[in-house]
Amino acid sequence: MSGKSMEERKAALRARVQSKLQASQDATEQRALVSSEELVVSVEDVDAAVELAAEKTKQRWLRLEEVERGRWRTIAASLILLGSLLGIMSGALILQGNPSDIISSSFFASTDSVDVIGTAIQAEEGTEVENVTVELIEIDTNTILRTVKTDANGLFVIDNVISKLHILKLSKEGYNTMELKIIPEKAGVGPITMSYGDDTITRDHHTVATGWGLENAVGLSTTIGILTVITGIVGVQAAVEVRRGKYYRRTQYLAGISLFSRGLIIFGPALILAGMITMVFIKEQFDDNQEE
Question: Which residues of 59-69 are buried (b: 16+ CB within 10 A; e: fewer)?
Answer without folding.
Answer: eeeeeeeeeee
